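Entry 14. Ran structure prediction on the chain below.
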Amino acid sequence: MSATTSEPPVVEDTSVDHTADIAAIEQLVADVETGYNSNDAELMISGFTANASAGNAVGSVITGRDALLEAGRRGLAGFLKNEYVHYELTDITFLRPDIAIAHKAARATAPDGTLIDKDPAMVALYVLVKENDRWWVATRHNTPVPAA
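Output, structure tokens:
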């Protein structure tokens, strides 16, 4: 009987040039930011799949595009109405040619875009899928970052 050693794999796709994919994912996150800052819930969730889920900053998980749209409308008309944010993609890893994970940092801003937060107030994890030559958010999870 022989002993086998199992080394953990590195799971990262390098089979294709992902330059256009990165630009598409950056635009998807930019649309979320623009939708948030302009109180446009439709734009904010335009890149989410029909069965997407999102974990919000208070720990609730919302599932389904219709539910995400309704939650976005309520939030942007209510407690988020006069809030503004800047998102920075901090990394994107392609697990397969059509599956990616991305992280973003979020900082509060003034209406003119001037940063209020020096450090990120929240980070988010996105799981993205490519369907019919377009990138979509399958799930996103926000995590508040405690102030130092």
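The mean pLDDT is 95. Will compare against last week's run tomorrow.
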